[in-house]
Every structure is written in C-alpha cells, then in structure tokens.
Design a protein that fits this description.
506 residues; mainly alpha; 0% strand
Length: 506
C-alpha cells in the first residue's frame, strides 16, 4: 500500500489500486483501509481510501457505510459508497440514506441524486430523503453548465446561496476558463480572494485555491506565458504560492523543463520555487535519468542554496533509495552535509531504525557522527532509555560515546530521575560517569526543572556528588550545591558542609 501511495500520477496509482482490490472480500478490504490509515504522511491517502471504499460497497454496502461513519471520514468516501451502492441497488441505498443524520445524510442524498435518473424519480427520492433543496441547487448548477460566457457563468455562480454548491461550481468554471483565457480566470479568482461574498469565511482560501488551479493548468499548457505573468507581479504570499504551483506543474511534465524554468523566474521567487520543486520530487516517480539530472542540478548550486535545499532533497532521495541517500548526504560539504545527514538518518530511522543506526556508525568524521547519532539517540531515549544507552555505549570514540551517553541521561533523568541516577551509579567508566553525574546533578537542582516538574531533586544531586571521583568535578558540583543551599533552599548546615568540600581534595 505504501508503494502504491507513492505513485504520483493519478491514473497509474488508481489503476494499481483497482487491480489490488478487484477480488478481495470484506476482511481484506478492512485490512487495506487500516493500512491506508497508517500512511499518515502519504499525500494521496484520502483517494486511496475512496477507491477501497468503492470495492467495499460492492461486497457489503451496509458494512461499508458503517465503517465510513465510524472513522474520521472524508466526504468523498461516503459519496463513493452511496454512488456505487445506488448504481447496484437504488432502493436499498435510498432506504439506508433515510436512516442517516446530519452531514452524512446530505452527502448520501446528493450522491444518489447525482445519478442519471428520470426527473420524476429524482423528485420522488428527494422528497423521501428531505433533499428538495439539494435537488433545486443541483438543477441551478446544471443550468449554469450551459452558459458559454465564462464571466457571466462566474457572476451567476458567485451568487449561489449554498456554500458547497457555489464552491464546486466556481472550481468547475475556473478550470474550463483557464484553458481558454488564463489571465481572465486568474483575475476572477484574485478578485474572489480579495472581496469574498459576505457570509462565506472560506472564500479567501477558496480564491487562493482557484488561483493555484488556474496556474496549474496555465503552466502545463503555456509555461512561458505563465512565467511572464508571474514576472509582472509583486512577490506577495499569493504569488509565491502560485510560483510553487507553476514549478511543480512543469516538473510533472518534464524535470528538465522545470530546471530550465527555475533559471528564468524572478530572482526573489527562485528560492521558493526551488524548494517546491525539490520537495515535489518525493511525491512522484522519477526515472534514473531524471534522478541523475536532479542530482547534477543540485551539485551546480551555490553552497548557500545547497544548505537551504538539503533537507528538502533528502526527503526525495530517501524515498527512492535510503542507502544511496545516506552516501549522498555524507559526500556533501559544510552546512549542506550536516543538514542532509541529519535529515536522511532521521527519515531512515522512521521506518528502518536499525539501518539508520548501522549507517551512522560508518561515518568517519567524529563531529558529524556525533550530531547524527545524537539525533537518533534522543528519540530512542524517550521510549527505551536502556536500549539507547547500550547503543550509545557501543561507539568506539570516547568523545562521541561520552556525548551520546550524556544525551541519553539528559532525556532519561527528565522523565525518570530516580532510575536514571541508579543507572549512573552503576557505570564502570569513571571518567564518563563523573561527567554524566555532574551534568545530571546540575539539571536536577535547576530552576528550570523546578518550574517544569514542580520540584527539584537536590537529594539525587547529593547522591551523585558522593559517587564522583574527579577532584575538579567534585569541587565544581560542591560549589553548585553550596549555592543551592544558600539561595534556593536555605540550609546553613548543608551550605557550610559543601563550602568546606570546595577546597577539599578527597
């Protein structure tokens, strides 16, 4: 399912999924829906579920309706179920729709009424489901479809009372209009964003959505004209958004054309376009030649641009080949290398944590290895501090090992200080133990801890003081404890005790 979800081209993705679900039963359908639920980062997740629900409706429509409503569903899912059901058994679908309430009933009613039915039958169903107003809106919408003057049709659509019907109709008009006169279509969408109809708070966001839809169509059909229009605009957030849409639309057709387009965009829009272009690569299929072209283009960029784009390109490279992504990240230099390595190893760890750990250990540069490993160990320490400690302790470099062990205990002591301190006291490496003990002790009696958890744990800091063997570390911690018992929790006896220990080399 994850593989299908990564297919960027709609027709190919849908064909693959239709083939997968063509002969499955209810149990497998539910398993597939659960798999889709787990793909929380997949951009096409709603559409994957919609297609699976069409199959669900074919094998058990009653159960399909129940399943949709039980989830935090999208409107397209319930619509798909009732449309498929009504095609197969109109009477049963209408009867089930009668039992629904609220938005679910409205969606089911509209899905059924959108079928090609005789006028008398639609009216009868509308009356039975309480959908007379829905049918009236649909008929008004059908009347608008016959309008050939886009500006007139737009003006009428803006006045439609029903918010859902109005938005749907405006989307249909602007798509057709953009194919004939994108400049006029863009102007209409821009005006809608600037002056929304009263009572519809979603119109400004709808205006931006329609502007991007116009740009998508325009850029695909006439890239040069779309770039010329963008070049004449001020660099507002809206223009930045439409620029992003332009470059992604061009890249869908030709990666080489997209790279060429980046070279002719206004200078103040190049960065946003580069980021959108690179980020979009992780959401589409890229053949080997295009992938090599993409990497060659990245190599040609200035160092500052490489650093900025490294996290975005990391996502695209990891999605294609995790180990190659890691090799690429390590091969970079400076800030770009650091950003790429951190992002690549983190992304790999989401699905293959052991692979991420193995790869980090192959990094030769100790400073880079430490940063990458600490990124992973911080995450693991929150869930399995002992496992994180075992891994941190396995590094060859004592410098890296010291910092990673400290990172583990920093996280561990924040959630379970008693167990973390017990573990510190069991450590055999005296140098690292003293370093960890000193750092943890300072955090346990800090004001930040008291503010966050409602208490300090100076008692544990005192236990750690007694375990420290390094005279210099003991002296520094004695100073901190003496200050604590003077200023934070006044205790003259303990303050004198630790003051006496400051100069004592025991």
């Amino acid at each position: 399912m994850a593989e299908i979800g990564r297919i960027a081209i709609d027709s190919r993705r849908n064909d693959s999924l239709y083939e997968l679900v063509a002969h499955v039963g209810v149990a497998r359908v539910k398993e597939l829906l659960d798999e889709v639920d787990a793909l929380d980062r997949a951009p096409h997740r709603p559409d994957l579920a919609r297609i699976i629900y069409i199959r669900f409706a074919a094998v058990d429509p009653e159960a399909a309706v129940d399943d949709v409503i039980a989830r935090a569903y999208r409107t397209s899912w319930l619509t798909a179920v009732f449309r498929a059901w009504a095609h197969a058994d109109l009477d049963a679908a209408v009867a089930r729709a009668q039992t629904l309430d609220g938005q679910a009933k409205l969606l089911a009613t509209r899905a059924i009424l959108e079928l090609e039915l005789p006028a008398w039958q639609r009216e009868k169903i509308a009356d039975r489901l309480g959908g007379v107003a829905i049918l009236a809106s649909m008929r008004a919408d059908e009347d608008l479809r016959g309008e050939t003057d886009f500006s007139v049709a737009w003006g009428k659509a803006v006045l439609i009372a029903d918010d859902t019907v109005r938005r749907q109709r405006l989307e249909e008009i602007v798509a057709a209009w953009a194919e004939q006169d994108p400049i006029a279509a863009m102007a209409a969408a821009t005006e809608l964003a600037a002056q929304p109809p009263s009572g519809d708070p979603l119109s400004p966001s709808l205006g931006l959505l329609l502007q991007n839809r116009v740009m998508e169509i325009w850029a695909t059909a006439d890239t040069e004209g779309a770039v010329a229009w963008i070049s004449e605009q001020e660099s507002t957030r809206t223009v930045q958004s439409t620029t992003n849409t332009l470059i992604i639309a061009v890249a869908q057709g030709s990666l080489a054309d997209a790279i060429s387009t980046l070279d002719v965009l206004p200078e103040d829009l190049v960065a946003i376009a580069q980021r959108g272009f690179v980020a979009s690569m992780s959401q589409r299929d890229v053949n080997d030649a295009d992938f090599d072209h993409l990497m060659d283009w990245y190599t040609s960029l200035e160092p500052a641009n490489k650093t900025f784009l490294a996290p975005f390109l990391s996502q695209a490279v990891v999605a294609r080949d995790a180990e190659r992504a890691f090799d690429w990240a390590v091969s970079l230099e400076g800030g770009a290398q650091r950003n790429a390595v951190l992002n690549v190893t983190w992304r790999i760890s989401l699905n293959e944590p052991e692979m991420a750990k193995r790869l980090v250990k192959t990094i030769d540069d100790e400073a880079l290895q430490q940063i990458a490993a600490e990124n992973l160990v911080n995450t693991e320490a929150a869930e399995d501090p002992r496992g994180a400690l075992d891994w941190a302790s396995s590094f060859t470099s004592k410098t890296v090992r010291r910092e990673l062990v400290n990172a583990v205990f920093r996280r561990w002591s924040s959630v379970d200080p008693d167990e973390a301190v017990r573990e510190v006291l069991r450590m055999r490496d005296a140098d690292i133990r003293d370093d960890v003990a000193s750092r943890i002790a300072s955090s346990l009696m800090s004001g930040e801890r008291a503010q966050a958890f409602g208490e300090s744990r100076v008692d544990l800091a005192e236990q750690l003081f007694e375990a420290i063997r390094s005279p210099d570390v003991r002296r520094d911690l004695a100073k901190a404890l003496q200050r604590y018992y003077v200023a934070t929790e006044p205790d003259p006896a303990k303050a004198r005790r630790y003051a006496a220990r400051i100069g004592k080399r025991d």
